[in-house]
Amino acid sequence: MKNTDMNQDLPRATPQSRGTDPAVLDALLDDVERQDIELHSLLVWQDGALIADAYWAPYAADRPHMMHSVTKSFTSMAVGLAVADGLLSVDDAVLGFFPAYAGPVGDNLRAMRVRHLLTMTSGHARGISGGAWRRLASSWIEDFLRQPTPHAPGEVFVYDSAASYMLSAIVQQVAGRTIHDYLGERIFRPMGMSEAITWDIGTDGVNTGGNGLSCTTQDMLKLGILHLQGGLWQGRQLLPEDWVRQATGMQVRDVVLGVFTGDHYLGPDEAGDGVPASRREGYGYQWWRGPHGSFSANGLFGQYCIVLPAEKAVVAFTGGLEDSDRRVHTLIYDGLRPALGAGVSGRPGAEALEARLAGLRLKTRPGMARRRAPGEAPRRSWRIAPNDQGVEAISITEEANAVRFTLRDAAGSHDVLAGFGRFLETVTTMPGGRLHHSYQPAEGLTVLACARWLDGAPGERILEMDWIFLKTAFRDTVRLHVRDGALRLTRGVNVNSAERVLPELTGRPTTAMEREREREDG
Question: Which of 72, 138, 183, 206 has its CA 20 to 30 A from that of 226?
Fold first, then answer.
């Protein structure tokens, strides 16, 4: 039976009713536009009510978004519940939960406690990224326990999604169910979080813990509100207040975040490509400490839930941003934060702000409606030269005001349908893990795509497509350069943990015999 409580909305209020000038929010939107920042959503909660919710279409309130490392702060709640239920202690030995482990055990592994996983001080020299483990088919638990631990637990901070996975595995051991189910009963349903929440499963049948959770931006905002309120929600103490204080407090002061290589977070003394590690304000139990007494849940590529206790406020946003891009943080900490509750100018502005929020859209390229020239074939196909992506053939078929792009590899055929002058929404299995932090679910991803024809060099036509993968931060630009029948294809992405552009593909037109074979193969 459908649980209607999962659709509860948050109370809303005008900014000026909370003593905040709407002009400040309007100016923030001006800065986002002027600096060409790719935001997907921005929600502001102040003093018991939602005073602004912005979504840049096609992103919307009911669309879930991959949260990456924001997931860790959800995992922290599951540990807190298990501690409150008497199922475990933060001082329990990690090895004690995995008696079947038969690998090497050194003194540092033997000394590792649950609190060391919570504070990212497990003793490892490098942290494992979810992007690396998603390519690993064997046990992630086994892999974690076999990693070298050169440091004594508690001594060195090394950011590690694998530590969060181990927390998920430990809670599942003692609670007898996944942390998704555990939190669903104890937190998600009582708080009226959306039914859209999903959570990836690792190779051990365990929720991924450090990443892989998808939810709406309002779900993420509620995570922050619950912790702002000390675990209290509508008169019910869902999470122990003492746990919230520990989880969001300063557990580790000397925090140096190592360089991210895509597969690992390097140790604090390592430099990646000459880039030094960065110093941060501090760390709690899977929560970051921030300036002005704030704490936050942070996700790669631009998902953040920032809690500002002094202002009784929470700001949550999603986007497609590099991890080093701190422009939105500057706008929030230096612009919005001091203005919350600081008074209004008396100038009208709430209605104009509301209208602006309702009309926000992602920037798109102009002229996306240009179609093929008269006389051009509606379908073309190419045999692709040997390549490291395993692509065998590519074809394009023009349909009613749209083009169907088809790629064939050893796994089969994969389609994207792109509209001319409009975005079309479909689900595609198009390979893209190399550009998408190793995310490539077998069931495919929702994609919104549009296309246009451009003139290139003399005699060259270019089909340019914009692919927005709606549940993620990823947005691909794909260009097919056609000249004298031959094909040259490029594909790049807005953000990624590793390469941003795939190696160029080239192809020659298929022969009549090859096209017949393609039809026979389906």
Answer: 206
Q: Identity (one letter) of the amino acid at 17?
A: S
Dump the DSSP string for 209-258: SSS-EEE-HHHHHHHHHHHHTTTEETTEE-S-HHHHHHHHS-SBS-EEEP
3-state secondary structure of 427: strand
Q: Do 88 and 170 contact (CB within 8 A), yes or no?
A: yes
CA distance 88 to 107: 22
Q: Are 497 and 135 in contact (CB under 8 A)?
A: no
Owner of token pair 């189910």? 181
Q: Which domain holds residue 488?
A: 379-521
Q: Tell me the one-letter amino acid at 379.
A: R
- CATH no. for residue 313? 3.40.710.10
Distance CA 325, CA 446 (A): 26
List, for residues 332-347, the tens digit of each pLDDT value. Answer: 999 999 999 999 987 6
CATH number at residue 427: 2.40.128.20
Residue 207 to residue 71: CA distance in whole angstroms: 10
Residue 498 pLDDT > 60: yes
Q: Is 95 exposed, middle or buried (0-12, 13-18, 19+ CB in 10 A)?
A: middle
H/E element, 208: none
